[in-house]
Amino acid sequence: MTTWLDEVRWDASGLVPVIAQERGSNDVLMFAWMNRDALAKTIETGRAVYFSRSRGKLWFKGEESGHVQTVHEVRLDCDKDVILLMVTQQGHDPGIACHTGRHSCFFQTYADGRWVTVEPVLKDPSSIYK
């Protein structure tokens, strides 16, 4: 029997790319990866759980920083190989999704042949991560 998890097109490493988008503002907060366990835990808990490739384990968003993502909706794209999470970013106002202490991981824009930082640091990362 095929389950909803079997319908996702996992890559050769058993992962699927995930975009976290903020409900309300529609800001794209971050990009990450999930494996089957991470997606199942996200559905089960209503909280974003990713797979950390660098750590080789599940990563409950906010487990160190307190910047938890409450998940309101999980969408699968037309090719069934990308997940979109509609989230509320918790832990700071405005929400901090990036490990650099910014609202979004997408804080640089290309202009005149270089990358320019266009989003401020909302909280010093050294005070977030111990």
Walk me through the topology:
Blueprint: E1 16-22, E2 28-34, H1 36-45, E3 49-52, E4 57-60, E5 69-76, E6 83-89, E7 108-111, E8 114-117, H2 125-128
Parallel strand pairs: 1-6
Antiparallel strand pairs: 1-2, 3-4, 5-6, 7-8
Keywords:
130 residues, mainly beta, Ubiquitin-like (UB roll), four-stranded mixed beta sheet, two-stranded antiparallel sheet, 35% strand, globular
**Percent of residues in helical segments?**
10-25%
Number of strands: 8
CATH fold node name? Ubiquitin-like (UB roll)
Oligomer type: single chain
Please indicate the count of domains: 1
Number of helices: 2
- What is the CATH class? Alpha Beta
* Inertia-based shape: globular
Overall mean pLDDT: 94
Secondary-structure-based class equals mainly beta
Strand order of the largest sheet: 2-1-6-5
Tell me the major beta sheet.
4 strands, mixed
Gyration radius, rounded: 15 Å
Query: Uncertain segments of ≥5 residues (pLDDT<50)?
Result: none
How do the helices and strands follow one another from N- to C-terminus?
Answer: EEHEEEEEEH
At CATH's second level, what is the architecture? Roll
CATH H-tier superfamily: Phosphoribosyl-AMP cyclohydrolase
Distance between the termini: 45 Å
In percent terms, what proportion of residues is strand? 25-35%
